[in-house]
Amino acid sequence: MQDSILVTGGAGYIGSHTVRLLASQGFRIVVLDNLVFGHEGAIVDEGVELVRGDVGDKKLLEKLFSEHGFSAVVHFAAYAYVGESVTDPLKYYRNNTAEPLTLLEVMQAHGCRSFVFSSTCATYGVPESVPIRETNPQDPINPYGRSKLMVEWILRDCEHAWGLKSACLRYFNASGSSEDGKIGEDHDPETHLIPRVLMALTGEIPHVDVFGTDYPTPDGTCIRDYIHVDDLADAHFRALEHLMKGGDSVRCNLGTGVGVSVKEIIQAAEEVTGRKVPVKYGERRAGDPPALLADPWLAKEVLGWEARRKDVRDMVRTAWKWMNGPNHGRFDA
Asked: pLDDT: is 188 or 104 the higher one?
C-alpha cells in the first residue's frame, strides 16, 4: 500500500498505537497534532511525519492535502475529560465539534471521502439496557458526549451532501499499552482506573479511590468494558480498509463484551504485580451508571473485527510493563 493517510491526534494514546499499526501495513502516515495532550516521543516509527498544528488551521490543512493527496483521514484529535467538559463546555464544543468542520471543508475541496472517527460510548449516556447495542438511544449526559455525537450527525449530513463515507467507532474503556512497552498511556492528569491503580502501587499517588461499593452488581462496584488499545488500533485499521474498499458508512461499538468491576481490576493488578494495592473506599460519584458494557456484534459483522484480548490481566500486564519501562513519563524529555 502507498496510500497517504492523515491521522489527527496521532501523538495521543490511542492515536499513536493506531499510527504504529497503519505504518506497519504500508500506509504513508502524516500525523497532525498540536501536542497539547499528545507526545512527540509517541511517534516511534521511521517514515511517519509529525506536523505540529491544529485541526482548525485551514491554511495548514490546505498545504498538507495539496502536498500529500490524502486518501483518507483518521480523526482522533479531541479533548476527553468529562468533568472538564461540564465546567468548560465551550472549550469542548469549539475543539471537538467546531474545529473538525474546517477539516471536513478541506476534505471536501480535495475530494477526500473516507473518514474514520474516534467516537465514544459516552454518546449513549445512561443506557436503557445493557449490553449496549447500536440501536440503543443516544442521549449523552455531558458536553463531551454531546460534542462527539454532534460530529456523528455532521458526518451523516456530509454523506448526504457530498458523498463522505465515515466509520464512527464508539469505544468503551481503552486500556493497556503496546506489547513491546515502547508507547503507552501517559495522560496529565490521569483519570483512568487501571493506570491509577498502578500509580498507587508505584507510590505516584497514595491510594486509589473507589467510588461506591453499594451498586447493584455482584461485588457492589461499577462494572465497565475494558478494551486493549492494540485491539482499538486494529479496529481503526479495519474500518479504514472497509471505507477505502468502497464500504458503506458504519457506526459501531468497540468493546470486549466482558464486564469487569472496579474490585476485579484491583485484584488483577495484585495478581500481575504481586503487590497489595492501597485502596480508599468512598461514596458514589454522581452520574456513574452501575454497568456499561458493549455488544460488539456489528463491528464483527461489518468489519470482521473482534477483540483478541479479553482477559483484563493482559491489559494490566502491558500497562505495568509500560509504567516500568524506559519511556514512561519521559515522552517529552
From this structure: 104
Say whether 144 is catalytic. yes
Sequence-separated (6 or more) residues with CB below 8 Å from residue 75: 8, 9, 55, 100, 103, 115, 116, 117, 118
Under DSSP, the state recorded for 123 is G
Judged against a pLDDT cut of 80, whether residue 89 lies above it is answered with yes
Backbone phi, psi, residue 14, to 5°:
-75, -35
DSSP 133-179: -TTS----SSHHHHHHHHHHHHHHHHHHHH--EEEEEEE-EEE---T
Three-state SS at 212: coil
pTM score of the predicted model: 0.95
| Residue 51, pLDDT above cutoff 60 | yes
- Which member of 144, 171, 215, 226 is catalytic? 144
What is the CA 330 to chain-centroid distance, rounded?
A: 22
Class of domain 193-225+257-323: alpha beta
In which residue ranges of the chain is CATH 3.40.50.720 found?
4-175+226-254
Fold annotation for 4-175+226-254: Rossmann fold (3.40.50)
Q: In this model, does residue 1 exceed pLDDT 70?
A: no
Question: 155 versus 333: which is more confidently predicted?
Answer: 155
285 — pLDDT class (breaks 50, 70, 90): confident
